[in-house]
Write a structure and sequence with these properties.
OB fold (Dihydrolipoamide Acetyltransferase, E2P), about 30% helix, about 475 residues, alpha/beta, 8-stranded mixed beta sheet, Rossmann fold, 2 domains
Length: about 475
C-alpha cells in the first residue's frame, strides 16, 4: 500500500505535504496572533518550538477514534460479504482513510489497527477451506466471518496507547445496538473478544453499547507509562527511554492512567512541555524564599505533578482536579512514586536525587477552591491556629500561602475565580500551560494587571493541524 495515499480527513496538512514547513508557519502565526492580541507581551519574550523533522509530524498521537464503515468491494468476490474499514469525519461526513492504519498515531496504535482490520475481515475456514463440502459447514453462521459477533453493529473504534512505543494499547469497540440480548449471545461475544484480544496484541479490549460493557484482557483497564528525569545536569532532561542503569542522577516516574479519562494525546509535546516546566521551576526554586509551596490546578492524573515532586524543588505540593477518575489516578501515581509520604525538609539546594515532595491531592472544582481559598485565608486563619488544622485537610491548604501556581486548564481557559486568586493571592510566579489560543489571550489580559510575562514558548501540539500549545511563565510585578 502506498503510504502517502492514506487520507488524513480533517487535517490541514496531508502526508504528501511538507509537515515541517506547515509546523513552522503555524507556530509563527500563533506568535504573531499573540503579539497583536493586545495582551502586551514583548516579542523578545516569545519563543517558538516547531517540528524540525518529518518524523516529528507523524507517529505522535496516543488517542484516536475512528468510525467504522462498510466497503462492499473490500473482500474477495469468491467469499462474498463486506469489509469494514476505518473512517474519520470531515465536514460532518465520514471519509475513509484508504488504509488499515493511521500514520499520525503512535506505532503501537498503528500495529494494533492493522491487526484489528485484518481480523475483523477474516473469513472463517475449516482446515483452511471455507468451501469444503463437509457437514461441519452447516454449523457456520451465514456470514462466515471468524469474528462475526464482534463485527455486528460495530459503529466506531477507539485506541489509547502508552507514550512509550512498546507498552500498552487499549481498544474500545462502540456499538449502535445492544452488544448482546441473551446469555448465549453474551458467551459467544466474550469468547470472541478474548481470542481477538490475543490475536491483535491488545492489552485490553472493551466492548460498549448503551448501558452495556464487557471487557477482555487486563482488568481494570488502564495504561501504564514510564519516563525518566535526568537531574545530573544544569538543565533537567526528560526522556521516555529506559535511562542509564546504575546512574545516580536518573529518576524514574511511573504513571497509571485510566483508559476512560483524559491523558495528554501527544507524548512528544508532553515531554517538551514537562522539561520546560521543570527547568522553569528549578530556576524559581533556586532563587525563591523558604518555604516554597506549589498549588497546581487542573492536575489530571499527575503528568506534571509527579515529576515536579521527584525533583524535590518544593516543600509542599497541592494538586486539585475535578474529574474523580483523575483524582484517584493522581493519588495512585503519588503512591507508586512515593510522593505521598511525610513532609520533606528543604535544605535550600536540590540534590541529584532528592526525596520526593509530598503531594496532597484533592477533588473539586478549581473555581470553587479558588473562592474558598481567598475567603478562608482572610477569615479562618485569623480565627484558628494553623497547628489545630489537620494538614491533610482542604481547610489547611485553603488557608495556606503558595508561592507558585501551575495551571493546565481545558481549552476554555481559567475559571474567573482562579484568575482572581492568582491576582489577589500570595503567588510570586504562575506557570500557565494552554491548549486554547483565544482563551489564553483573554486570561493574560486579566493576569497582566498584576504579572509580567517572563517567557512564552509556543510548541506544535498536533502537527499537521492548526493546534498549538503555549507555555507561559508570569512573575508578579514589583
Amino acid at each position: 500500500m502506498d503510504y502517502l495515499s492514506i487520507n488524513l480527513p480533517g487535517y490541514e496538512c496531508q502526508l504528501e505535504d511538507d509537515g515541517v514547513s506547515h509546523s513552522t508557519l503555524k507556530v509563527e502565526s500563533a506568535a504573531e496572533d499573540l503579539i497583536s492580541s493586545g495582551a502586551s507581551i514583548n516579542i523578545n519574550n516569545i519563543h517558538q518550538l516547531p517540528c524540525l523533522s518529518y518524523k516529528e509530524t507523524i507517529n505522535y498521537r496516543s488517542t484516536c477514534t475512528f468510525q467504522i464503515i462498510t466497503e462492499h468491494e473490500g473482500l474477495d468476490s469468491n467469499t462474498g460479504g463486506s469489509a469494514l474499514c476505518f473512517a474519520m469525519r470531515s465536514k460532518r461526513m465520514p471519509k475513509p482513510l484508504n488504509g488499515d492504519h493511521f500514520p499520525i498515531a503512535t506505532p503501537r496504535i498503528q500495529e494494533v489497527m492493522k491487526l484489528v482490520a485484518k481480523n475483523l475481515n477474516a473469513r472463517r475456514t475449516i482446515e483452511g477451506n471455507l468451501n469444503d463440502d463437509s457437514s461441519e459447514n452447516e454449523n457456520l453462521d451465514q456470514s462466515g466471518f471468524q469474528f462475526n459477533q464482534l463485527r455486528t453493529d460495530l459503529s466506531s473504534v477507539s485506541f489509547v496507547s502508552s507514550w512509550n512505543e512498546d507498552m500498552d494499547c487499549i481498544t474500545t469497540f462502540n456499538y449502535c445496538q445492544p452488544i448482546h440480548v441473551d446469555e448465549e449471545t453474551k458467551i459467544k461475544l466474550i469468547s470472541e473478544a478474548h481470542v481477538f484480544c490475543s490475536k491483535c496484541n491488545i492489552t485490553t479490549l472493551i466492548l460498549r453499547s448503551k448501558k452495556m460493557k464487557e471487557v477482555a484482557g487486563r482488568f481494570p483497564p488502564h495504561i501504564n507509562d514510564v519516563l525518566h528525569l535526568d537531574l545530573g545536569h544544569d538543565r533537567i532532561r526528560v526522556d521516555l527511554g529506559r535511562g542509564e542503569e546504575n546512574c545516580t542522577s536518573i529518576v524514574p516516574v511511573y504513571y497509571h492512567k485510566p483508559e476512560d479519562a483524559f491523558q495528554h494525546p501527544n507524548g512528544n509535546t508532553m515531554l517538551q512541555a514537562l522539561e520546560w516546566i521543570l527547568n522553569k521551576l528549578k530556576t524559581i526554586g533556586a532563587s525563591g524564599s523558604s518555604p516554597m509551596n506549589l498549588l497546581e490546578m487542573y492536575c489530571g492524573a499527575g503528568a506534571h505533578t509527579i515529576p515536579i515532586s521527584k525533583t524535590g524543588i518544593f516543600d509542599s505540593i497541592v494538586a486539585v482536579e475535578l474529574d474523580q477518575r483523575l483524582v484517584d489516578a493522581c493519588k495512585d501515581n503519588s503512591r507508586k512514586n512515593s510522593c505521598d509520604l511525610g513532609q520533606k525538609s528543604r535544605n535550600g539546594n536540590i540534590d541529584l536525587c532528592p526525596a520526593p515532595t509530598t503531594v496532597h491531592v484533592f477533588g473539586g472544582d478549581a473555581g470553587e477552591w479558588a473562592s474558598k481559598s481567598l475567603s478562608r485565608r482572610h477569615k479562618d486563619k485569623l480565627q484558628t491556629e494553623v497547628s489545630d488544622i489537620n494538614i491533610a485537610s482542604k481547610l489547611h491548604w485553603q488557608c495556606e500561602a503558595f508561592q507558585v501556581l501551575l495551571v493546565d486548564p481545558p481549552r476554555a481557559g481559567l475559571d474567573k475565580e482562579v484568575c482572581n486568586l492568582a491576582i489577589n493571592g500570595s503567588f510570586e510566579h504562575i506557570i500557565y500551560v494552554s491548549c486554547g489560543r483565544k482563551a489564553l489571550v483573554g486570561d493574560l489580559k486579566v493576569l497582566l494587571e498584576a504579572f509580567d510575562v517572563v517567557d512564552c514558548t509556543i510548541t506544535d501540539l498536533f502537527p499537521r493541524t492548526d493546534s498549538v500549545e503555549t507555555l507561559v511563565h508570569l512573575r508578579r510585578k514589583i
